[in-house]
Write a structure and sequence with these properties.
It is a single chain. The protein is mainly beta. The chain has one domain. The chain contains one helix and five strands. It has a three-stranded antiparallel beta sheet. It has a two-stranded antiparallel sheet with strand order 1-2. Strand 3 and strand 4 form a beta hairpin. The radius of gyration is 16 Å and the shape is rod-shaped.
C-alpha cells in the first residue's frame, strides 16, 4: 500500500529520534492517508488522499 497522497504527493518523511543522552536512531513520520470516495473533475473514484486535501474544498469534493 502506497503511503502517498494521490492529490498533492505528500508522503512519509524520515528523521531521527533523539534521546535524552543524545543518541540518534532513524525513524519515519507517515502522512495521514485515508481512502475516500471523491469527485475530481466530475468523475467519482476511490483514492488515497491525505486529510489536508480531504479538508480543503478547492481540491476535491466528497461524493455522497
Amino acid at each position: 500500500m502506497s503511503k502517498k497522497c494521490e492529490i498533492c504527493g505528500k508522503g512519509q518523511v524520515s528523521g531521527n529520534n533523539v534521546s535524552h543522552s543524545n543518541r540518534h536512531t532513524r525513524r519515519k513520520w507517515n502522512a495521514n492517508i485515508q481512502t475516500a470516495v471523491i469527485s475530481v473533475d466530475g468523475t467519482v473514484s476511490r483514492k488515497k488522499i491525505c486529510t489536508r486535501c480531504l479538508r480543503t474544498s478547492n481540491k476535491v469534493s466528497k461524493a455522497v
